[in-house]
Design goal:
455 residues, Glucose Oxidase, domain 1, 3 domains, binds zinc ion
Length: 455
């Protein structure tokens, strides 16, 4: 679906315009690069704090010059405190014969993330109270955490669980949970104005591809592409541990919050499903309307959801005292695919072309935000004569209906009170088609920009 959507878009007017606005776009290459990044990040054991996050952010630095920020444990952040730092070197369960029956080195999902250190022998019944499995999908290992309640546990497949016999087991968790830091990645691209677009993705899940790694990688490539353009907005990228990371950033950067005019949380952007956009709490913010326009005209399937106080860091960005215009851009949403939060969210679930398609749509969305402005028709008394200016029946003598239609709409509603996005919605045309018409009309001296963008 993603591939078809992309192909259709690439043939229409807006697709052609985007291609000229960006450095050469090659979906295959972009998909391969994103997949390579996800493959590199996949084995690292991330958590909400610790060296796994640092190592992952350093890998992303090869794509975009983000800075690693360190916030000490115990720092008060609104109603929360930055937790202790967790690091893990090894963990296993050995049977009486000394064989490892569960081994962290095989998959970091085997350990309940944030498990305290343990070195202990115990019988099967005591051990079982610390084991988690998925009876309905017996080959898969679940993903579990114990962030805010100190404890320990192992996650295993149902087959592994059932193979354990009565007897004594040796449990080893070689971890540390101690005062340290919470680490996040931040990158700011300065545009012509200080008004910002926020792009946020969580970076705290261990070996899970769609939920987490796809968003981290696509955000880094988006930053890479935007850094090559001259920008009207400034862009702030955050790679942060879920929940506590956005709370920490908002608490420590409250003075910058009012600069954020638009924002997106990215997650689950690598599976083969169609797009899902969860609107900001405001519901009709410019970002909500731009995403809807881009998805509506992309030629692929998509779903729009209203804001709910569940999900990812949009919960914090859209909390009532912050209330930023930040939506969540996904393919198949969290919890809506069977592999979610299990070992099956692996490298086979994410597709190079899906990630490339997600990135391509995000670039269209950013292009629309950049170009959305109000114009004034400089020849408002009756229609100007377009033919005399080479704007009518211009494409090789054949009628270009969409472009001419877009010009008529743009001329009529460019009264200073309607933005290009308003006109795109009213005319049911792609934003990029309206924007292309505005640019042609401006070049012909028929339109002039009015102030900044309208929301
Ligand atoms: Zn998750």
């Amino acid at each position: 679906m993603a591939v078809a959507g992309l192909a259709i878009f690439m043939q229409d007017t807006s697709g052609q315009r985007l291609q000229t606005a960006l450095s050469p776009w090659n979906s295959d290459q972009e998909g391969e690069e994103l997949y390579r990044m996800v493959s590199e990040l996949y084995p690292i054991c991330r958590s909400i704090t610790g060296d796994g996050v640092r190592e992952s952010l350093r890998l992303l630095q090869r794509q975009a010059p983000l800075t690693l920020r360190e916030v000490p444990s115990g720092t008060k952040v609104f109603d929360w405190a930055v937790p202790k730092e967790w690091n893990i070197r090894d963990a296993y369960i050995k049977n009486r014969r000394g064989e490892k029956v569960v081994d962290f080195q095989e998959s970091n999902l085997h350990i309940v993330n944030y498990s305290v250190p343990v070195r202990k022998k115990m019988g099967l019944s005591e051990l079982r109270s610390h084991l988690f499995s998925l009876p309905d999908t017996p080959d898969w290992v679940p993903y579990r955490t114990s962030y805010y309640k100190e404890g320990w546990g192992f996650c295993v497949s149902q087959h592994q669980l059932e193979s354990l016999v009565e007897g004594e087991y040796e449990v080893c968790i070689d971890s540390t949970l101690a005062p340290g830091h919470l680490t996040y990645g931040e990158l700011r691209l300065q545009g012509a104005t200080d008004d910002e677009v926020l792009i946020s993705s969580h970076c705290c899940h261990p070996s899970l591809c769609n939920d987490n790694l796809s968003g981290m990688a696509v955000a880094a490539r988006l930053a890479h592409h935007l850094s090559e353009r001259s920008l009207r907005y400034s862009y702030r990228f955050l790679w942060i541990p879920g929940t506590i990371g956005s709370i920490t950033w908002l608490a420590l950067n409250e003075k910058y919050v009012s600069r954020i005019k638009h924002g997106l949380v990215l997650s689950c952007v690598g599976d083969a499903g169609g797009f899902t956009y969860k609107r900001s709490r405001r519901g009709n913010a410019e970002i909500d309307r731009v995403v809807e326009n881009v998805l509506k005209h992309s030629g692929g399937g998509y779903r729009l959801l209203d804001f709910t106080p569940h999900g990812y860091d949009e919960r914090q960005y859209c909390s009532p005292g912050i209330n930023l215009p930040v939506g969540c851009f996904m393919r198949t949403p969290n919890g809506a695919y069977p592999e979610y939060h299990t070992s099956a969210d692996d490298l086979s679930l994410v597709k190079p072309m899906s990630m490339a398609g997600s990135l391509h749509h995000l670039l269209q969305i950013m292009t629309a935000l950049e170009e959305n402005q109000s114009y004034l028709n400089l020849n408002p008394k009756c229609e100007p004569q377009l033919g005399r200016r080479g704007l009518y029946h211009q494409v090789g003598g054949t009628k270009n209906a969409a472009a001419e239609d877009a010009m008529m709409w743009t001329l009529n509603f460019s009264d200073g009170a309607h933005s290009l996005l308003d006109i795109a919605e009213r005319s049911a045309l792609p934003f990029a088609t309206i924007s292309a018409a505005a640019s042609q009309l401006e070049n012909a001296g028929l339109l002039a920009k009015v102030g900044g963008a309208r929301s």
